[in-house]
């Protein structure tokens, strides 16, 4: 409605999601009987997202580095101390 481009990341290019999107990124992952819950597809899609992240970060290296440092700092302040075992 507001002109946003929709991007679908799917293992099924014929899905409703894919046919409704402006741009479709398709993975090709075969599930095995030993894995349940579309694990292979999810891992393939996470790899695509990681590649997209790296590409964006490379194009805007300074801004990405600053954002990552700020995120790291925010998370570090909220971490629980490690428990000792043994």
Commentary on this structure:
The longest helix is centred in the middle third of the chain and has 21 residues, at 39-59. The termini are far apart. It is built from 3 helices and 2 strands; from the N terminus they run βαβαα. It is mainly α and 86 residues long. 51% of the residues lie in helices and 9% in strands. It has one domain (7-78). It is flat, with a radius of gyration of 18 Å. It has helices at residues 16-20, 39-59, 61-78; strands at 7-10, 23-26. Helix 2 (39-59) packs across helix 3. It has a two-stranded parallel ribbon.
Write the layout of secondary structure elements.
Blueprint: E1 7-10, H1 16-20, E2 23-26, H2 39-59, H3 61-78
Parallel strand pairs: 1-2
Helix pairs in contact: 2-3
What structural keywords apply?
single chain, 86 residues, mainly alpha, two-stranded parallel ribbon, 3 helices, 51% helix
Order of strands across the main sheet: 1-2
N-to-C terminal Cα separation, in Å?
58 Å
- Principal-axes shape call: flat
In the residues, how many domains can be counted? 1
Query: What structural category characterises the helix and strand content?
Result: mainly alpha
Number of helices: 3
Provide the helix percentage: 40-55%
Mean pLDDT: 88
The SSE string, one letter per element, is EHEHH
What is the CA-atom radius of gyration, in angstroms?
18 Å
Largest sheet: 2 strands, parallel
């Amino acid at each position: 409605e507001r002109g946003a481009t929709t991007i679908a990341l799917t293992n099924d290019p014929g899905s409703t999601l894919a046919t409704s999107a402006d741009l479709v990124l398709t993975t090709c992952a075969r599930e095995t009987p030993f894995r349940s819950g579309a694990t292979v597809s999810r891992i393939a899609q996470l790899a695509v997202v990681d590649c997209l992240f790296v590409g964006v970060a490379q194009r805007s290296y300074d801004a990405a580095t600053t954002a990552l440092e700020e995120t790291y700092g925010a998370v570090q302040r909220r971490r629980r101390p490690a428990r000792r075992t043994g």
